[in-house]
Design brief:
The protein is mostly beta strands and 645 residues long. The chain has one helix and 53 strands.
C-alpha cells in the first residue's frame, strides 16, 4: 500500500524572525528571515509600508543636506495646533531651525548650535507649559527655550553687574545702605522671569536728600524691568522699586526698608546649565548630563513645579533646596539617557548603569535615586517608552552588550535573544549616530534604527511587535522583524500628524517621521509601497520542515495560499530542498486580486512541486516590481512520502 499523503499547514508566523537559535529548533510560528515585513494585520506577515518625503519647499531646510532633529511640539493643549520642529544641517558649516504648522517658519536662535564633533546630532527637545525647551551644545553653558514660537533664547536670566550710586541734594540721609539689582520680565503686569541678584553696592551717603541708584548695563536677554533691592544691614534685602528698563535710575529717599516686601533668597534663580537630556514630570522640567561640565555629566537636576512660589519656575534651579542628584558621578561614565515617567518613575541610564528616580513627598528633595543595576545600561538615543504585550507600561532600550531590553512590571528583561546575529552587526563606535528609537502606538511596535559595522549612521531598522512578545526563561522573545531600505537610515525620528502637507489643522493620526541625510530630508513613514520612490524587497523564509525525520525523503506536489484580497498585490513563492541545496520551484506572481467581492483569496498552487526532500523551506518574496501591500494568512502544501534513506 502506498504511503499516505500528509498536509503541512503553516497558519502563523507571528512569532517573528529568529536568526539566533538553530533553524531546526524553531517553534512553529517563527521564521529564519523576516525582512521588510510586519505582523499588524496578518498571520504569516504583510509587506511593510513605505515612506514619502514631505515638502520642505519655501523653508530654510530645503537648502540643507540632512535633518538631524525632529520634535512634535504642543504650544497649547489643542493637539490640532501641533508643530513639527526641524533642524536642517549642511555638513558642519551651517544649520537652520524651522517649524511647520500650516506653513514653514524659520526660528531665530540667540546662540547657534555647535555643528562639529557630532553635536549636530545631539539636540533634544521637551515640551512643557507651551514652551519648547531645547538642549544643545552652544557657546554658552545655558539651556535654551522657545516661549514665543519664533525665537530661541537662553533660559532664565544672566546675573547683572552691580548698580552704581550717587548722592542727590542735601538732606538727612547718612546711614550706610546696600543695593543690588535683579532683571525681570513682565507679561501683562506679571513677572514671568527673574535673575539672581547682582553683586552688592555699598553706599555711604553724606547728608543727602536721596541716593540715585543707576541700574547696570542691560544683559539683552529679554528683560523688561529691573528690581532694586536695598538693605540696612547687608543681610535682609527688600524690593523697594520695580522699574521699566527704559528708566535707568531710581532715587531712594526711604529711611525704613522693612515696610517693603522681603527679597527672594539668593540662589533661588540659578540658571539651568547646558544639559544633554530633557524630561518632564509632575509639572517640572528635568535636565540630565551636561555638554560643558564633566562634573555634571552624571547629574539629574530639576526645576520647581510650575505653581510653586516664585517667577519663571520652569527656567530656574534653586540651590536653596536640593534640586539635583549626582548618580555615581564618574563611575560608569556619563549619562546616556533620561526617560519621561514610566511605571511611576523617571529612569536615568549610563552605558552599564540604570537608575530609578522615585518621587518623594519632601519639598527639599523631590526625588530619591535607586540603583537598579550596574550590569545593564542603554545606548544614547535608544530609550523608547511604550507598552508590553499585556498593555502595561514599559521602557525599551538597547543595552550595548546584549541588545534590546525592556523595563516593565517584571523588572529588567532582555528581549533581543531572537536577533543576536543581527545585533552583532551594530557599530557601537559610530561617530555620528549609533541608534535612534521610537514607539509607534498604532502599530504596537518599537522601532530602533542602528548603525551597522563600518557605518557611522543607521542603516538597519529593528522592529519589535510588542503585542506578540512573550515571557520565556531567557527573557522576552518573539515578534521581531528586520527592515532595510532608505527608511532604515533615520538620523532623527518623532511621531507626527499624517496630514502635515495639507495646510490645515493637524489631525491626531500620528505616524513615525524620520530625518535623513539627503533622500528628501524628511519622510512620513507607514505609507505607500516604496521609500519615496526607491524600491525595497520584502521576504519571509520559514523554518525547515520534515515529514517524520531527516531519514525520510518526501515530495511536495501541490499547495494553496490564503491571503487578504488586495488589488495589485502579488508575491513569489519559492520552495527550497535540504537547506537550499536546490530551489525546486518558484511560483511567480501569485496575484491577490479578488475574483468577485471576497475579502480573502485562496490561490491554488498546482505547480508547487519538489521531490527527494529531507527538509523543505518556503520563502515568500516580492515580485520584481512590487504592487500594493500583500498580507499572507496561511500556506498549506501536500507532502508525498518518499523512500527512507
Amino acid at each position: 500500500m502506498a504511503a499516505a499523503e500528509k498536509d503541512l499547514t503553516i497558519s502563523s508566523l507571528r512569532g517573528g524572525v529568529n536568526n539566533s537559535d538553530p533553524a531546526i529548533s524553531l517553534p512553529e510560528d517563527q521564521c529564519v528571515l523576516a525582512k521588510n515585513v510586519e505582523w499588524v494585520e496578518s498571520m504569516l506577515g504583510e509587506r511593510r509600508r513605505g515612506s514619502v518625503a514631505i515638502s520642505v519647499s519655501g523653508s530654510d531646510i530645503s537648502g540643507k543636506d540632512r535633518v538631524t532633529f525632529l520634535h512634535r511640539h504642543l504650544p497649547t493643549s489643542d493637539e490640532t495646533a501641533s508643530e513639527l520642529w526641524v533642524l536642517g544641517v549642511t555638513g558642519t558649516s551651517s544649520s537652520a531651525l524651522c517649524k511647520k504648522t500650516t506653513s514653514w517658519t524659520t526660528i531665530t536662535l540667540s546662540e547657534a548650535i555647535t555643528l562639529t564633533s557630532g553635536y549636530q546630532y545631539q539636540v533634544a527637545g521637551q515640551t512643557l507649559h507651551g514652551k519648547l525647551f531645547l538642549a544643545y551644545k552652544s557657546s554658552v553653558d545655558r539651556l535654551h527655550v522657545s516661549s514665543n514660537g519664533t525665537t530661541v533664547r537662553k533660559t532664565g536670566f544672566g546675573e547683572p553687574a552691580a548698580p552704581t550710586g550717587a548722592d542727590q541734594g542735601a538732606g538727612a540721609i547718612e546711614a550706610v545702605r546696600y543695593y543690588r539689582v535683579r532683571y525681570t520680565e513682565q507679561v501683562g503686569g506679571a513677572t514671568t522671569r527673574r535673575s539672581e541678584p547682582s553683586n552688592v553696592l555699598t553706599h555711604d551717603p553724606v547728608a543727602a536728600a536721596s541716593v540715585r541708584v543707576t541700574k547696570p548695563a542691560t544683559i539683552s536677554e529679554g528683560e523688561t524691568h529691573w528690581e532694586l533691592e536695598a538693605s540696612h544691614d547687608n543681610i535682609d534685602f527688600y524690593v523697594i522699586a520695580t522699574t521699566a528698563v527704559g528708566t535707568t535710575f531710581y532715587d531712594d529717599s526711604n529711611t525704613n526698608y522693612t515696610t517693603f516686601t522681603l527679597s527672594e533668597d539668593v540662589g533661588g534663580y540659578e540658571n539651568i546649565h547646558s544639559g544633554e537630556f530633557l524630561s518632564a514630570d509632575e509639572d517640572r522640567l528635568l535636565i540630565g548630563g551636561s555638554f560643558e561640565d564633566d562634573d555634571l555629566a552624571s547629574r539629574v537636576s530639576w526645576t520647581p513645579v510650575f505653581n510653586d512660589t516664585g517667577a519663571g519656575n520652569d527656567e530656574r534651579i534653586p540651590i536653596t533646596t536640593t534640586n539635583f542628584l549626582d548618580l555615581d558621578t564618574f563611575e560608569g561614565g556619563k549619562l546616556t539617557g533620561l526617560s519621561n515617567p514610566v511605571i511611576g518613575s523617571v529612569w536615568a541610564t549610563k552605558l552599564s548603569h540604570i537608575y530609578k528616580l522615585v518621587r518623594t513627598t519632601d519639598n527639599t528633595k523631590a526625588y530619591d535615586p535607586v540603583t537598579i543595576t550596574k550590569a545593564r545600561g542603554a545606548l544614547k538615543g535608544s530609550l523608547a517608552a511604550g507598552i508590553d504585550q499585556r498593555g502595561m507600561a514599559a521602557l525599551y532600550f538597547l543595552d550595548p552588550q546584549v541588545g534590546p531590553c525592556r523595563i516593565g512590571v517584571n523588572g529588567i528583561q532582555q528581549c533581543g535573544a531572537d536577533i543576536r546575529i543581527t545585533w552583532k552587526t551594530l557599530n557601537i563606535d559610530a561617530t555620528d549616530v549609533v541608534c535612534r528609537a521610537i514607539y509607534y502606538p498604532e502599530a504596537r511596535q518599537v522601532h530602533w534604527w542602528i548603525a551597522e559595522t563600518g557605518q557611522n549612521k543607521p542603516t538597519l531598522r529593528l522592529v519589535l511587535q510588542v503585542n506578540e512578545s512573550r515571557d520565556f526563561a531567557d527573557g522576552i522573545r518573539r515578534g521581531w522583524a528586520i527592515w532595510d531600505g532608505n527608511s532604515a537610515k533615520a538620523i532623527a525620528a518623532c511621531l507626527y500628524s499624517t496630514n502635515i502637507d495639507a495646510g490645515t489643522a493637524r489631525n491626531k493620526v500620528l505616524v513615525p517621521f524620520i530625518g535623513l541625510e539627503g533622500l528628501g530630508l524628511i519622510h512620513r513613514t507607514d505609507t505607500g509601497t516604496d521609500d519615496n520612490g526607491v524600491a525595497y524587497t520584502a521576504r519571509i523564509k520559514t523554518k525547515p520542515y520534515w515529514l517524520k525525520s531527516i531519514l525520510h525523503k518526501f515530495g511536495v506536489r501541490v499547495g494553496a495560499l490564503l491571503a487578504k484580497a488586495v488589488t495589485g498585490a502579488s508575491v513569489d513563492l519559492a520552495v527550497y530542498r535540504d537547506f537550499e541545496i536546490e530551489t525546486t520551484k518558484t511560483v511567480e506572481d501569485i496575484s491577490f486580486t479578488a475574483t468577485v467581492t471576497e475579502n480573502q483569496v485562496i490561490k491554488f498552487l498546482d505547480n508547487l512541486t519538489g521531490s527527494e526532500m529531507r527538509v523543505a523551506q518556503f520563502e515568500f518574496i516580492d515580485v520584481d516590481s512590487p504592487g500594493d501591500r500583500w498580507e499572507l494568512n496561511q500556506l498549506a502544501v501536500v507532502e508525498t512520502p518518499g523512500q527512507q534513506a
